């Protein structure tokens, strides 16, 4: 990949967070001229604030932007726009046009205020109507008012920026706590001697 960036003078790359981490920690980046790179678009999983900050320290000229979307939303449901928003490390941006969202307590079904973590529900003209031929999956994923239950644990800050915490199904239940594996992975990634990490319940 680094050879291709150098050879073809790549300016933009869509990437996943593990690739951002690898670029941040790898010394191989010093062996190639990747100065043509202007922007990375990260998605597919939560990108930790610490990893994003370290990436920007190493590559200050490269804008690192995040976005969020699902197949069921027809693409991007939230995105970071411009350098000022890109500097808000950890957020996937604000909602796309014509998209509604709410954070819902997965146990009670109650809508939660900004700063509270819960399941992200989305609604809008690009959100699917259901799964063809699978009424059971549709009923589990969509409510009667057209809200899509994403299965992602998220929160909004007071300015409307969305933060992805983890997948609802991946939460590790320990005593009275629900621990997001991604948070533990981000903590492990912050150690300079750890190149990558995956947390699973044991």
From TrEMBL:
Residues 2-131 form the AMP-dependent synthetase/ligase domain. It comes from Gossypium armourianum. This is AMP-dependent synthetase/ligase domain-containing protein. One of its GO terms (molecular function) is CoA-ligase activity. Keywords: Ligase. InterPro entries: AMP-bd_C_sf, AMP-dep_synth/lig_dom, ANL_N_sf. Pfam families: AMP-binding. Coiled coil: none annotated. Signal peptide: none annotated.
């Amino acid at each position: 990949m680094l050879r291709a960036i150098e050879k073809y003078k790549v300016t933009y790359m869509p990437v996943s967070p593990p690739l951002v981490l690898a670029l941040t920690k790898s010394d191989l980046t010093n062996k190639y001229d990747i100065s043509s790179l202007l922007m990375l678009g990260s998605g597919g999983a939560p990108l930790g604030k610490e990893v994003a900050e370290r990436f920007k320290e190493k590559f200050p000229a490269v804008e690192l932007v995040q976005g969020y979307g699902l197949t069921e939303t027809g693409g991007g449901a939230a995105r970071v726009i411009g350098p000022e928003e890109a500097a808000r490390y950890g957020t996937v941006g604000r909602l796309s046009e014509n998209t509604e969202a709410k954070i819902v307590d997965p146990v009670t079904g109650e809508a939660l205020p900004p700063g509270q973590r819960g399941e992200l529900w989305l609604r809008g003209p690009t959100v699917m109507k259901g799964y063809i031929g699978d009424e059971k999956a549709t009923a589990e994923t969509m409510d009667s008012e057209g809200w899509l239950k994403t299965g992602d644990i998220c929160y909004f800050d007071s300015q409307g920026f969305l933060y992805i915490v983890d997948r609802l199904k991946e939460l590790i239940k320990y005593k009275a706590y629900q621990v997001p594996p991604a948070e533990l992975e981000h903590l492990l990634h912050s150690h300079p001697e750890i190149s990558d990490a995956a947390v699973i319940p044991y």
